[in-house]
Amino acid sequence: MLLGITLGWSMYLASMSTTQASAPPIVVRDDRGTLQTFAVVPQRIVSLMPSLTESVCALGGCERLVGTDRYSNWPSRIIRLPKLGGIEDANLERIIALKPDVVLAAPSTRVVERLEALGLKVVLLESNTHADVKRALDVVAALLGTPGASAPLWNTIQRQVEHAAEGVPAALRGRHVYFEIDATPYAAGEGSFIGETLMRLGLANTVPAALGPFPQLNPEFVVRAQPDIVMALQRGIDEMPRRPGWARLNALRDHRVCGFSNERYEVLVRPGPRLGEAAQLLADCVIALSARAR
Question: What is the pTM of this model?
Answer without folding.
Answer: 0.91
